[in-house]
Amino acid sequence: MLDLRRLTLICEFARRGSIAATASSLGYSASAVSQQLAALEREAGVALIDRTSRSAELTDAGRRLVEHAERILSLVESAESDLSSHAATPSGRVVVTAFPTAAVAFAPALARSLRRHRELSLRLMQSRSGRGMREVESGEVDIALVDDWWGRVRQHATLTVFPLLNDPLVLAVPRRHRLADPDAAIDPAELRDEAWMATPEGEPSRTAVDRLLADVGGAPPVAWEFEGLGTILSLVAKGTGIAAVPALSLAAGVRGVVVREFPGETIERRIYAVARASSVHRASVAAVLRALHVAAGYLAADLPHLSLAAQ
C-alpha cells in the first residue's frame, strides 16, 4: 500500500522541481527525501524519479502518480474535515499566511477572537504578495490572506475564496503639508511635482500608483523607493514626502499622517481569505475563518476608508 506521507512528499517534489528544494521546504535533509522517494518507488513497483548526477525529475509514471496523489490527499483531508466538523471544540494548530500589511492589521483582532478556544493554536506568518494561494494549494498553510488589485482572484476547483475587505488607495501627507487641510483641493496633475515615496517597481501598490496618475502623464520619477508600507508611512510622518498607500496600511496607527481621498475613480484592491475546499469544515479552520470575518468588521469600523466586501 502506498504511504500517505510519501505521496505528500512526491507532490511537493513535483511543485519544487528538485530534491534539495523539497528538502528545504519540508525541513528534511536531502538524503532523507531521496530515501523516502526511493521507498515510494519500491511500493509502487515502477520508477517514479529519473535521476542523473546533476538533477532529478518525474518520469511519466511519476507524473501520473502525482495526479492520483493530489486527489487522494484531498479526499483524506475532506474526511478529516468532516469528522472534525462534528467536534464540539476546535483544536490543533492552524497556519495562516498573510501579506505584511494584512498580518499587522488582522493580528490583534485574531488574537482577541481566538483566545476563548484554549485547545486551538494559531501560527500567523508573513509572505510576499502573490504566494499565498500557492501555499494553501500545496498544503504548506491552511489559510492565506491575499490581495487582488486586478480582479483575478476567483473560486477554484480545490480552493474556497472568502471576500473580506475593499481597500482603496489613499493619499498620505505629513500633518503640516498644505493638503492636510481637508478643504484643500487635490489636483492629480499638481501631485506630480510633489516629493513622492513609493514601493519598488513591480510591487502591486506601485503599479496602482501608476494607474492613479496615468491620466496626468503617468507617475513622476520616484527618488525614494522603500520596501514596506510601514517604512513609507513613518517617513511621511516625518515630513520627507507624500505617498499613495492602501488604507489597510493605516491600521498600524502611524501618528503625524493625514489621509485624504483621491478625486475621481477609486482604485482599490480586494482582500480575501483563501482555504482549501477540503478543509473549510474542519472545526479549527472554520473557527479561524470566522475570526477573520470578525476582524474584517472591526477594521472596517475603525478605518473610515475601508469597507466590507460583498460576499
From TrEMBL:
Coiled coil: none annotated. Residues 2-59 form the HTH lysR-type domain. GO terms for molecular function: DNA binding; DNA-binding transcription factor activity. The keyword Zinc does not apply. Keywords: DNA-binding, Transcription, Transcription regulation. GO terms for cellular component: protein-DNA complex. InterPro entries: LysR_HTH_N (IPR000847), LysR_subst-bd (IPR005119), WH-like_DNA-bd_sf (IPR036388), WH_DNA-bd_sf (IPR036390). Belongs to the LysR transcriptional regulatory family. This is LysR family transcriptional regulator.
